[in-house]
Amino acid sequence: MARSSTALPQRKTTGPVAPGDPSPVQTDETLRVSLPIWGGVECTYNRVHDTYFDQTEFSGHSERPSDFEAIAALGIQALRFGLLWDRHVRTGSWDWTDRCIHSMQACGIRPIAGLLHHGSGPPHTDLLAADFPEQLAEFAGVVAQRYPEIDAYTPVNEPNTTARFSGQYGLWYPHGRSPHQFLRGLLNQVKGTVLSMRAIRRERPDAQLIQTDDAGSVTSTPELRSTAELLEARQWLTFDLLCGMVDRAHPMFHYLRDRGIPEHDILWFSDNPCPPDIVGLNYYVTSDRFLDHRTHLYPNELRSSEGPFIDVEAVRVHGLPEPDFGRSVRKAWQRYGRPVALTEVHLGSQPAEQVRWLAAACQAMQQAQQEGVQCAALTVWALLGSFFWNEMVTRDNGHYEAGVFDVSSGAPLPTPLAQVVQQIAQGEAPHHPALAEPGWWQRADRTCYPWLGAEAVERAA
């Protein structure tokens, strides 16, 4: 992809499959897993110019109420569910949502309602509109009135990621291409989250905010140390704003001011904190990034839109540590001291690699628990698979990747992941023949970019 592309979190990519040196994911079949397991049906509803991409329709989920029975059979306790504002306005009916909520209740699944999932709102608004937060909150209040049984919400999924794709990289509507538009889109979504939770809690005072965003580390060559530190700090802005941490002394305050965000808009969040009940981290194999000033060593399309440097997936850089869920989980716990959940665990690859990725997530959360981190849940994402993510859902290119179920035949057929999900749900450590081999992200042939030196490796550890 253009990058636009490679420098973005390419979150559903397939890696090499040849065997390598590292050890496989370690599991102990006698070990009991004390971790709630949640699920999620990919429900992105994004807009590109005047075209809407509805993952719920692509997967057939919108026409299969029986999906919830299959999901419940896995042992899933809670489901991230798209009760989406922009989709609802398009259909003009509550019928589908009514059926879904009823089905989840009948199956014993707790819904975690998402109101905006990589969307920009209905056609009459967008992420940059001045009244976007208030409009979203109005919809949230209507939802809470209609479904008082829902006690957990993610009003906006991944505000930071959505703002970058929609406000800085120009991929999604309203196709902004400036730091100011990115930050305005981010602040509008986070303010919309605060106002939405107020509206929801007027109807359901105990409603939980389960906030999600992309999580990963940013490392670099020594020459770009300050840039890497800035971009990593920026990754936490969603949670920092919600927690009321962004005051005049915050590292991001002047960054925001210098890019045209008025002071009163920044300080509004410190005056109106709405900390998440659960910090939800969406961690992918390409979430960790590496910045390199040596642009001549890379293809020109890998140049960052942020400056004269290269931005690539750290997993492809020789000498950097392999991806590790635990790093992000521990950082979030240390930063906020609030329960942490992995809210999207998914790898776009072959079933054996997907099994290894899920097992690695489970192992990392167990280790974090043993270290004293309060781990809320592990979420198996894209239960029904996902469409077009290899090109960031910018066009219908026919690409489908299965998840726990494969729906390419029109009906959800379990993949090898289903067995492992059931094991974790039953408190067992994952065990599967695929775990005898390491994941591709652990193998020596995962890398294709040059050695960095000990200093960069030390910073990434």
What can you see in these coordinates?
By secondary structure, the protein is an alpha/beta fold. It has one domain: TIM Barrel, CATH 3.20.20.80. Helices cover 35% and strands 15% of the residues. It has 15 helices and 17 strands. It has helices at 55-58, 67-72, 85-91, 95-107, 132-146, 159-168, 179-203, 225-235, 237-242, 253-258, 263-271, 325-336, 351-370, 416-425, 454-460; strands at residues 37-40, 45-48, 51-54, 78-82, 110-114, 152-154, 208-214, 218-220, 278-282, 289-292, 310-313, 340-345, 375-380, 386-387, 400-401, 405-406, 413-414. The strands form five sheets. Strands 1-4-5-6-7-9-12-13 form an eight-stranded parallel barrel, surrounded by five helices. β5 (110-114), α5 (132-146) and β6 (152-154) form a beta-alpha-beta unit. α13 packs parallel to α14. The radius of gyration is 21 Å and the shape is globular.
Can you lay out the helices and strands and say which pair or pack?
Elements: E1 37-40, E2 45-48, E3 51-54, H1 55-58, H2 67-72, E4 78-82, H3 85-91, H4 95-107, E5 110-114, H5 132-146, E6 152-154, H6 159-168, H7 179-203, E7 208-214, E8 218-220, H8 225-235, H9 237-242, H10 253-258, H11 263-271, E9 278-282, E10 289-292, E11 310-313, H12 325-336, E12 340-345, H13 351-370, E13 375-380, E14 386-387, E15 400-401, E16 405-406, E17 413-414, H14 416-425, H15 454-460
Parallel strand pairs: 1-4, 1-13, 4-5, 5-6, 6-7, 7-9, 8-10, 9-12, 12-13
Antiparallel strand pairs: 2-3, 10-11, 14-15, 16-17
Helix pairs in contact: 5-7, 6-7, 12-13, 13-14
